[in-house]
Structures are given as structure tokens and as C-alpha cells.
Amino acid sequence: MYDMLETKDPVLSTLLAQLPVGVVIATSDGDFELVNEVARNLFAEHRRTNPAEPWVARPGAATDALEPIHWVIARILLTGELIRDEEIEFLDQRDEWRTLRVSGTALEDARGDITGALVTFVDVTAVNRAKEWEPLIRAISRL
Predict the structure, then answer these.
(1) pLDDT digits 0-9 by tens, 87-139
(2) Which residues contact 45 (CB under 8 A, 6 or more apart)?
(3) Which domain holds residue 129?
(4) Is residue 120 part of a domain?
(5) What sign has the CA pseudo-torsion 7, 8, 13, 15?
(6) How far apart (Å, rounded) are the C-alpha atoms in residues 48 and 57?
(7) 85: phi then psi, degrees, rounded to nearest 5
(8) CATH number, domain at 134?
(9) What is the pLDDT of residues 41-68, one digit of tens each?
(10) Which one of 16, 52, 109, 129 has the fewest CB atoms closer than 10 angstroms to its CB?
(11) Who has greater pLDDT, 10 or 108?
């Protein structure tokens, strides 16, 4: 199970709890400092359904999450890259591919040194599937 450091700011805690978006804040070492409920639930689901999958971290580890999330964090920490709406895929519990749209940015101190990474993601599987079917639906509606 993930530990989520409780923030002392009640507004931030409430915001993170009500967002329909996964939020992960990582330290400069890549360790997870904060993981909201949406992210924890997705990581737990993936771990349950794919325990032996090589892109998942050690079971039960504090950073036990989808490996592509770690790749995004590493890119941010190493290069300061700003990531906007990048899509990553993973297998769900029914062996179907799901897509996450991921964004991330570096957290910096007053000197501009990278002190961490903020990553957000949302499941866009249904939206992408609807786009794939749109041409067929249009063609059928013309019949």
C-alpha cells in the first residue's frame, strides 16, 4: 500500500482528494513523496492484475507503480523536461490496453535546482476508443 504524506494545508488535501486526476509528487531521488487516491487506486489495480510484469516495481515497495510513471519522473528529474499530454499504455485486469495521458513538470528551489517532479495523469482510454470508432459511426449514419 502507498503511503501518502498528509499535507498540513487543508485546501491542498481537499483539492488532491477531489481531483479526478492521478497526482504524484516525487523527490529529487525519485521516491514518491505524495500520491493521491486516484493514483494509488490505479497503481494497486495494476499491481494486482500484473504482479509478474517486468515494468512494475517490486511488489509492496513504496514506489510500486506503473513503470512508465517512473520513466516520466526520471526524464523530469534528469533534464527538467516539461511533459504535456504524453500518452502511455498498460494492460488492465482484463488484458485490455488502457491509455493514460500524462503531464509533468520539475519542482525547483529558489536557485533553480530541481528538487522534485510533479506528475499528473488521467485515463483517456474511453475517449481514444470513441475517436477510433467515429469514422465508422459517421459512415453508418450516412446509410
Answers:
(1) 988 777 777 888 999 999 999 999 999 999 999 999 998 777 777 777 777 77
(2) 92, 93
(3) 10-141
(4) yes
(5) negative
(6) 12
(7) 50, 45
(8) 3.30.450.20
(9) 888 877 776 655 544 444 444 445 677 8
(10) 52
(11) 108
Q: 75-85: per-residue pLDDT in tens?
A: 999 999 999 99
b vs e for 6-34, b when ≥16 Cβ sit within 10 Å of the residue's Cβ?
eeeeeeeeeebeeeeebbbbbeeeeebbb
Closest alpha carbon to 30 in 110, 119, 120, 117: 117
Report yes or no on 1 lying in a domain: no
Residue 101 located in a structural domain: yes
pTM of the model: 0.75
Query: Is residue 3 one of the residues assigned to a domain?
Result: no
49 vs 92: CA distance, rounded Å = 7
Q: Is 110 exposed, middle or buried (0-12, 13-18, 19+ CB in 10 A)?
A: exposed
List the grid coordinates of 121: 495523469
**Phi, psi values for residue 46, rounded to 5°:** -65, -40
- As for how many domains the chain has, the answer is 1
Q: If DSSP codes are grouped into helix, strand and coil, which group holds residue 127?
A: helix
What is the spatial distance between Cα 121 and Cα 39, in angstroms, rounded to a whole number?
8
- Phi, psi angle pair for 82, to nearest 5°: -95, 120
